[in-house]
Amino acid sequence: MTMLPDRMTILKKTLGDYYWAYSDILRDIGINESTYDQRIMAFMALKLLIDNDKLQFNLEYKNHFGLDDAIFEKYVREDTKATFLNIIQNIEKFGKNLSESFLQDSKYNPDTSNNILTYLNHFKTFELERYIQELPNNYLENVLDIYTYKANFRDYPKEQYKDLYEATISRMKKLSGDLTGQHFTQKSIIHLMCEVSKFEAEGYDKLAIYDPACGTASMLMESAYYFYNKNKIENIEVYGQELHGQTWLLAKIFLEISSLNGKTQGIKNTIAYGNTLTNPAFSNGINGITSFDFIIANPPFGVDWKHNYDEIVENMKCEQSDFFTVKDEKNKIVTPKKSDGQFLFMQHILHLMKSEKRRDKHAHAAIISSSTLISTGNARSSEAKIRKEIFNTGFVSAVLEQPNAMFTNTDISSHIWFLDSDISDKITIVKADTKEEDLFSPHPQAKDKMKNSYSAKNIRRLATLINNKKAFQYKSKFIDTKERYEINISNEIGYKDESEDVSFDELTNELNILMKQMCEDFQDNSLFGIE
Fold it and tell me: Tell me: the pLDDT tens digits for 16-27?
């Protein structure tokens, strides 16, 4: 009897196939490879909504796009392409089962519409109408067939939807020969950030999570899953801001089709479109009234902000600035290098932490940074002056130096900063790459430059080291940050010298034990006739 492949095997195969099938069509009609991902993701976004019953129509053009005859008659035109264009141009009329947060206030959106469906066909996000227009009718029908029969998301695990964007981008970057790209945050790092910033269910009827550089909301979703599953917090709302229109739209879609409790409604959210550094949507918390409980972020390393310099500095001069502002001895505003905007994201987050403190709210934050944020520049540099004031706030509770090879596209050295609104002038510094103890593990699905990860055991141990507030030699140290302008964790903690504190007697004892073991092994082998 022939064994049929199981459903997940088929699912993995079909999801692997549709990228390349559509790419072949785009190549045939002369589309530049560097723009494949825009088209592939536009149709992917559409199909995700269809397969999760958020749209009345589907892509089965041979079956009237799944519409009732009466409705189809209103939109039918001379051929498939014209009919499908007519449907897409009126897509706002075809939504169903959409949650309230999918139709968010237009002040958070790229344009005046509050209906997120509008942005499937918008010049700031996905220009779906243009992608359809460029395909001859027969090619369009081939694309619709690909997404109908190969890209099946109906049974796709909801907690993995957020990974689709990374998979698509990675494949398309390689196809176009672009080996650079975005640095996605693996789940184990997010879990560690959440575990250290604990929230017990008792006393939290609602948990508000914010990411100022949220991308497709991967960190927001994963942290929401973590607190829901581990701390049993039922009511979780997420907030974020994203500069790029396509990823903003995918964030809204992924949050809409995901859920924390298996219900059809998505994760409650507000995701603002725009530049957090020039127009932060949540600089005063939630509607200027409610605070965030947890801020999680992996801001872009080394983002260039020179084109927004004047606007950002003017903001810092305001009495109600959106940033934690640092001034020198001449009362002049100190700014970081124009090539390193991660300092500005930290200053934005510290501004929010000060707001939470004023509201008497116990808030936490966890931010990933490159090593420049903690140690770049001499004592007189602008970075050192900003860093000194960051330490002097008392909000920094710990900094973890991560091992290398934690991200797919870079092996750059990175840190996680843990902030707490309970002020202290001492912080814990922890080094994960140590010979004293295994504090990280090989990644179970290593790819590209991402070789390392944190196991559940690593996460529990690191959380203990970070939260215990006492020194563990060669792994952690509790230090005073008063007047500090930089911290080099490797210099502070360092590696254990394997030869130190070993006496002659200890070496003799180890050799005796080794010789005894060798004799026992030899005797065992002789008894069993092994030569």
Answer: 567 788 889 999
Mean local confidence (pLDDT), 318-324: 90
- Report the run of H or E that residue 299 belongs to, with start and end: none
* pTM greater than the 0.85 cutoff: yes
Task: Return the number of other C-beta atoms located less than 10 Å from residue 528's C-beta.
Answer: 6
Mean pLDDT (whole number) for 1-15: 45
295 close to 349: Cβ distance less than 8 angstroms: yes
221, 382, 266, 381: which is closest to 313 by C-alpha?
382
CA distances from 145 to 37, 131, 136, 277, 411 (A): 18, 16, 14, 42, 40
User: pLDDT value at position 4?
Assistant: 40
Q: Which residues have CB under 8 Å from 242's CB, separation 6+? A: 213, 214, 215, 248, 251, 271, 272, 273
CB 440 within 8 A of CB 400: no
Closest CA to 454 of 467, 469, 466, 439: 439
Question: Do residues 293 and 209 touch, judged by C-beta distance below 8 A?
Answer: yes
Contacts of 300 (CB under 8 A, 6+ apart): 213, 341, 342
Q: What sections of 183-339 are H helices per DSSP? A: 187-196, 218-231, 245-257, 309-317
List strands edge to edge, sheet with 396-401. Answer: 269-273, 236-242, 207-211, 294-297, 364-370, 414-420, 396-401, 426-431, 476-480
Q: Report CA-CA distances (Å) from 371 to 198, 395, 399, 449, 474.
A: 25, 19, 11, 18, 19
Q: What is the DSSP letter of 333?
A: B
Residue 354's CB: how many other CB atoms inside 10 A?
Answer: 14
Handedness of CA 518, 521, 523, 525 (dihedral sign): negative
Position with higher pLDDT, 326 vs 261: 326
